[in-house]
TrEMBL record:
SUPFAM superfamilies: Sigma2 domain of RNA polymerase sigma factors, Sigma3 and sigma4 domains of RNA polymerase sigma factors. Residues 108-158 form the RNA polymerase sigma factor 70 region 4 type domain. Keywords: Sigma factor, Transcription, Transcription regulation. This is RNA polymerase sigma factor. It comes from Spirosoma foliorum. One of its GO terms (molecular function) is DNA binding. Gene3D superfamilies: 1.10.1740.10, Winged helix-like DNA-binding domain superfamily/Winged helix DNA-binding domain (1.10.10.10).
Length: 170
């Protein structure tokens, strides 16, 4: 594959799946600075992975898998180096949310998703994006029945949390 072809595919995919990537980034990185870092990591990984795409799955499934795997690696790396990092809050973020009115229910939901373990977080994002149990199982690397069990537990956990906090009518 030529670099021109790789760049063309990358531009197309980035245009198509940018919102998907933002969802993954927001679920795995809490601060704007971390979100910038993770987004950059994912985009670089997507670009490097394009030549290995064998079209055995849809491009959205492929991108999701790359994004989730990169996010999981990034979370592990961040935990490992958290104590050694100094605050970079004074540096302006590259990816800043647009100044639209924030839906507090959506903010609550992302915070609740962020508190789930990595696999449950991935499954929740995939569920919200309408992936089938089979697709989720393929992306996350667990059985379809395990996906169903985890979804039921996640729903119960989120409902309990919402009832405890009684916020935003969720």
């Amino acid at each position: 594959m030529s670099e021109i072809e790789q760049n063309r595919i990358f531009d197309t995919w980035l245009g198509q799946y940018k919102a998907l990537l933002f969802k993954v980034v927001r679920a795995y990185a809490a601060t704007a600075m971390d979100q910038d870092d993770l987004f950059q990591e994912i985009v670089i990984q997507v670009w490097h992975s394009i030549p290995t795409f064998r079209q055995q799955s849809s491009s959205s499934t492929w991108i999701y898998r790359i994004a989730l795997n990169t996010a999981l690696k990034w979370v592990g790396k961040e935990r490992k180096h958290a104590a050694a990092q100094e605050s970079l809050d004074s540096i302006p973020a590259i990816l800043q949310e647009t100044k639209v009115q924030v839906d507090e229910r959506l903010t609550w939901l992302y915070e609740a998703i962020y508190q789930l373990d990595e696999i449950d977080r991935s499954i929740t994002l995939l569920l919200l994006d309408g992936f089938s149990y089979k697709e989720m199982a393929t992306i996350v690397g667990i059985s379809e029945s395990n996906v169903g069990v985890r979804i039921n537990r996640i729903k119960k956990q989120l409902i309990t949390k919402a009832k405890q906090q009684d916020h935003y009518g969720i």
